[in-house]
């Protein structure tokens, strides 16, 4: 799927959902706060969120690391409108920069005036991006030396009852969400390619996964 049709799809999905997204998603997008805490940004550090949605994670991260700068990228103009309003309402417009772009192919310098970032994070977005493997490659390419990529998303649900896994996946499909069962293998391959270390954890009996890839 090319970027433009996917952008139109996401705008259609979130045109109305964006108004209640954070209220409803907090009950099943598990592990997001763990990801944010693990960013461990130092004074003057810079982080980029791919698929920033409503800006919820950016606001939380900015509060957790007040000496760092944050950047958010999303393909949906509808979601970015909500993110911009959220960032402005929290008085963070000077510390959080937003841009519309494709997470599978983006130019940090053109969008944000930066060659790279200390941290790149992706929270429950890979499961909505058709060419999600390209997003991982683009995220790793956007890291400065020694930087790290942080991911949280749906897992294989291997420790949960089969009926729950079947029902969950059928429900997620209604929102164009597909858990990436080969995520670990893809990350391992990409980490070998760019000489990065990988920490990969299964959370809540496989309901979600949390991964950190760190460039040497």
From TrEMBL:
<keyword id="KW-0489">Methyltransferase</keyword>
<protein>
    <submittedName>
        <fullName>Class I SAM-dependent methyltransferase</fullName>
        <ecNumber>2.1.1.-</ecNumber>
    </submittedName>
</protein>
<dbReference type="GO" id="GO:0032259">
    <property type="term" value="P:methylation"/>
</dbReference>
<dbReference type="GO" id="GO:0008168">
    <property type="term" value="F:methyltransferase activity"/>
</dbReference>
<keyword id="KW-0808">Transferase</keyword>
<dbReference type="InterPro" id="IPR041698">
    <property type="entry name" value="Methyltransf_25"/>
</dbReference>
<feature type="domain" description="Methyltransferase">
    <location>
        <begin position="48"/>
        <end position="147"/>
    </location>
</feature>
<dbReference type="InterPro" id="IPR029063">
    <property type="entry name" value="SAM-dependent_MTases_sf"/>
</dbReference>
<dbReference type="Pfam" id="PF13649">
    <property type="entry name" value="Methyltransf_25"/>
</dbReference>
